User: Fold this.
Amino acid sequence: MDPELLLWVRGTGLQIAAAVFVLGMSYRMLHLLMLGRKRSLAAPRGSEWSGGLRTMWKRTFVSTKLSARGNFTVVAGLVFHIGFLMTFFFLSQHIDLIRAVLGLGWPALPRGVIDIAAVLSIGAMIALLAHRFIDPVKRMLSDFQDYLTWTLSFLPLLTGFMLLREIGFEYITLLTLHIASVELLLVIAPFTKLAHMFSTFIARWYNGAVNGFKGINI
Assistant:
């Protein structure tokens, strides 16, 4: 692959993708926050804040009774997210990039741990996709955006692992493909369901605050 292309994706391409991500995600979150809700004229029967915080905690860290299908989705989703975050935040090359841009840094995890996290995360994503095809309800509810977001999340993991292990192509090609896949994710994420990386906790707080105001303890 042309080294000039690598220089572009590492420079101008990455700057454009980062700008689109920051501006797009800021717009989505501001739009979400400014929607607000109609002021209730009823007397509050509880605290919005405690209800919101309680719901955020329970839906994030407390398991609920689910069907076998639901448990599979939760467990596989957790494995994917934890693996993805570990490879993103604790790979030494990523930490070097963050330090160069933001001036922040922390110790990296051993390469073997990163490899295991990446493999588990990739495996979890494949399992979730297979489950989406096999399960008739999930298949019926799935649309184009579900498969698009899966692909956008999967490619950086796959190309990153191939790059670390130098699988399939030469180093320059793999590095170019990896950075380009990350840029594609950054550019499209704010305008798809991937925006949930920031909106999830806002939505959970909002639902909990509504119930807290009504005195409902969920």
